[in-house]
Amino acid sequence: MAFVRRTIPNVILLLLLSFLATMTERAICRLIVPTSPSYFLRTTKAVKLSTGNMELVEEEQCSDRILRLTCRSLKAFIFVLEAEYQSNRTSICGYESQRLIAKKKKFKLGVKNSRVKDTRQLRGNYIKDDEEEERYLFDVRASFNRKCSGQHHCRYNLSSDHPGTTYWHPAALRLKYACVPEVAVCKYCNVEVRIPKGNEGGYLKSPGYPLYYPGGYSCGWTFKSSPGERIILTFHDLNIRSPEADGSCIDVVRVREKGNTLFERCGIAAGIKIISNSSLVTLDLIASTKLYPARGFLLQYQVLGCPNISAPNGSYISYDTVTSRTFSCKSGAVFPDTRKENRILECKNGKWNETVDKLPTCVGKKRKI
């Protein structure tokens, strides 16, 4: 009897532990087992450049899968444009989003990995890729650049290639990259870059990218567009020597316009845009050593605006923006074809919506046409 009394509690304890283990396993399974198959989206299109065709690729798939970035041409390299982890979109992985989002506090999504960057060290007239903080979007371009930009093909795993993602739950990973032909990229120092018209513009990489960047001598570029146009420089990947403990920079990338500094930076950045106020800017890479083991930079240059146009006789420019220009006739005069005092020209894709050399001269209101 004593043996039975000792055995029964042990049996009950084992049954209880077995029951708890089963319930825990079921709870975990309900959390991580997909409710529907995951899917994968990929679109490609060809973009015509002045020196050839560029392949533009957009992909979207679950973040727990390996991404394979490839270029069809062996003479093209990968240029990462956008990369986002979207923590609120779990359906692409086939998971129950409600259960995952309810446990989001357990996932250590640090502020340092988010789209919003610390800009205290940035100086100059620059704009960020996105001014508004988006709660569920996390910019992972830095790790994509480190692993893939400048390569012909690449395998990327978010959990192992991006720091701090160990506890991130499976969700949508959106990627946009270009396969840029080598011949379409400016890669030599101390040259003048004439910016072609068109939405894509052109591309430039520092010598040695993505293995190293040079120093010990002057390395700069001058960007020119037509009069009246403005220039956009977008650093899709910037990776040079980090700042010192006191915040000072030994190596630096600097953009200047008419003697004024628009942008100056060292360290790592991605997606920063600089917009000029004129049709000429200079870019300098100032480095202290002959070779430094960092990627350097990869940027895109584009034209913003249309060629300069003077006011027709008898009128003046009353309002002027990047996308439009308003001409107003002097007092008592109108444009003869519209009989109105004002005329607005719209700038689209680098062209005015009217033929510039055929703008009519203002005439008196009482004058018959």
Automatic annotation (TrEMBL):
Keyword Disulfide bond assigned: yes
Question: What PROSITE patterns does the record point to?
Answer: CUB, SUSHI
Q: Which UniProt keywords apply?
A: Disulfide bond, Signal, Sushi
> What superkingdom does the record give?
Eukaryota
Query: Which residues does the UniProt record annotate as the domain CUB?
Result: 189-304
Q: Where is the Sushi domain?
A: 304-364
- This chain's protein is named Adhesion G-protein coupled receptor G6-like
Organism the protein comes from: Vespula maculifrons (Eastern yellow jacket)
